[in-house]
Structure formats: C-alpha cells, structure tokens
C-alpha cells in the first residue's frame, strides 16, 4: 500500500537534500529558520507536514509505519544525489523505519528521539498517555493545555524568536491531529528498527529534555553501530530552537562527512 504524497516545502538547491520530519506537536513550519541556515551552507532542504498535519492528506490507519511510507514516497519524489532524513521526536521514530526500507536514504539524523513507547515502563506509559490524552478526552483543546506542557519540555529559561515560533506552531494545530499521532506513538515499538539500522546516523539530545532524555538517546546510540551521539547542554526537547547554532553545527558537520 502506497501512502499519499504529503504536503511539503522546498528550500534551496544542491545535490544533497535534507528531509525534515517534525514531531507530534506542531508541524513543519517550526523548521523554517533551520532550513534557511542549512541552505545557506549549500544544501537543499525539504520540510514536510506529516500525514494529517497542515494540508497533508491523512492516512488510514494512522501509524508510524504508514507515516514512514509517506516519508519514503517524498524521498522518491524529491530525490537528489544524496538524501538525508532528519527526524525530530515523532519523526525520530519514523526515520529508522523508513531508512531500513529505502536505499535512497544515505544518512539519518535523530533529534530528541526515543526507542518507542513499548520501551518505557508500564508506569511511564500510563503517565505519558494520561498527560497527553486525558485533557483532550475531557474536552480541552491543544491550545488550552499545550503551553505549560511545551514549556516543561524546554530547558529552564528558554526564550527567543525561535522558541516563540515553536509555541505559535504548536498552539495552532488541530486537537484531533495531535490525539491521532499520540495514539500512533503509543502503539509503536522502535527497537526493532534501531536494531536493524545500518545507515550512518547522527543522534542529538538536549541535556534538559524530560520527554526524550539524553540517557535514553544514549541507549539508542548503543543499539546502532553506525551512529554517533551528541548532547547539547542547556537545551530541552527543541534544541533546534533553543540552541540553534549548536544544533546546526552538528548537522552541518555530519552532512559534510557524508559527502565523498
């Protein structure tokens, strides 16, 4: 079954394309500054809206596997000489599954990732789902409850226009879209895809990220022989907005190493 092509935006030109896959909160708009920074270094960037986000058509069933099929369709449509997937949060679950199935993908960057919901303890699973779905089930919109949750996922004192952009994008999303993605995350175990991963991979964690911890990403790194792991100090879950210079430096160094 082929997933429909998602909505996406293309930035810059070049024979290396970085495909940016956002997380469950928000959509690809919060990657705009990041895309401009990467294109300024001579690379091409494609930023998607995951199925069901923005104007991208939804997929049924909504699952990480189906989202990955849409990512593969996008890579095939916009392929260049080299193709790198950058997956943030939920996107970091999608990335390994897609890379294991599409030989056009030459490299992988995982930002604020996890091994998947099934790797959490039963108590952690219960708390994760309750914190995110209970407000929605009680009739509260994402706009009403997301502000304190996103604040808690960032480093203490995180501020600036890029942090403001994350809040702007998250607070404008449809509540049902978020609920659908959280359920997709809750049914997915990312460990098999990580165990099978042979694609060169960069993993980036924020030291102060409580949702996808640096310790958890270190465990991911230990599962993937072809990976390197970096922790950005003073960053939480959204390092690309909280510490954009450090984040982009790591990404650009990785892209340069993948060039012949």
Summarize the structure in words.
This protein has one domain: 3-Layer(aba) Sandwich (Rossmann fold), CATH 3.40.50.1820. Helix 2 packs across helix 3 and helix 4 runs antiparallel to helix 7. Helix content is 46%, strand content 15%. The model has no long low-confidence stretch (mean pLDDT 94). The termini are far apart. The protein is α/β, with parallel strands linked by helices. The protein is built from eleven helices and seven strands.
Characteristic terms for this protein:
11 helices; 46% helix; 260 residues; alpha/beta; seven-stranded mixed beta sheet
Tell me briefly what this model is.
The chain is α/β, with parallel strands linked by helices and 260 residues long.
Parts with pLDDT < 50 across at least 5 consecutive residues: none
What is the domain tally? 1
Secondary-structure-based class equals alpha/beta
- State the distance separating the first and last CA atoms: 35 Å
CATH class: Alpha Beta
Radius of gyration: 17 Å
Strand arrangement, major sheet: 1-3-2-4-5-6-7
At CATH's second level, what is the architecture?
3-Layer(aba) Sandwich
Report the CATH topology name.
Answer: Rossmann fold
Separate helix tally: 11
Largest sheet: 7 strands, mixed
Task: Give the H and E element order.
Answer: EEHEHEHEHHHHHEHEHH
Broad shape: globular
Strand content is 15-25%
Specify the helix fraction band.
40-55%
Could you give me the name of the CATH homologous superfamily?
Alpha/Beta hydrolase fold, catalytic domain
How many DSSP-defined strands? 7
User: Could you report the average pLDDT, rounded to the nearest whole number?
Assistant: 94
């Amino acid at each position: 079954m082929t997933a429909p092509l998602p909505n996406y935006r293309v930035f810059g030109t070049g024979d290396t394309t970085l495909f940016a896959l956002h997380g469950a909160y928000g959509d690809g708009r919060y990657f705009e500054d990041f895309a401009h920074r990467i294109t300024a270094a001579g690379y091409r960037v494609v930023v998607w809206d995951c199925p069901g986000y923005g104007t991208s058509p939804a997929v049924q069933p909504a699952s990480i596997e189906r989202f990955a099929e849409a990512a593969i369709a996008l890579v095939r449509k916009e392929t260049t000489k080299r193709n790198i997937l950058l997956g943030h949060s939920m996107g970091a679950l999608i990335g390994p599954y897609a890379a294991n199935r599409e030989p056009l993908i030459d490299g992988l960057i995982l930002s604020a990732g996890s091994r998947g919901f099934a790797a959490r303890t039963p108590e952690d699973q219960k708390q994760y789902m309750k914190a995110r779905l209970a407000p929605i089930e009680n009739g509260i919109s994402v706009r009403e409850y997301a502000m304190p949750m996103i604040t808690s996922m960032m480093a203490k004192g995180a501020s600036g226009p890029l942090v403001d952009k994350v809040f702007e994008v998250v607070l404008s999303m449809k509540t049902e879209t978020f609920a659908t993605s959280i359920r997709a995350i809750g049914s997915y175990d990312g460990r098999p895809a990580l165990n099978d991963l042979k694609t060169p991979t960069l993993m980036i964690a924020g030291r102060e990220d409580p949702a996808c911890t640096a310790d958890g990403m270190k465990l991911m790194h230990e599962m993937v022989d072809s990976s390197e792991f970096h922790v950005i100090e003073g960053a939480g879950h959204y390092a690309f907005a909280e510490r954009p210079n450090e984040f982009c430096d790591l990404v650009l160094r990785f892209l340069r190493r993948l060039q012949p």
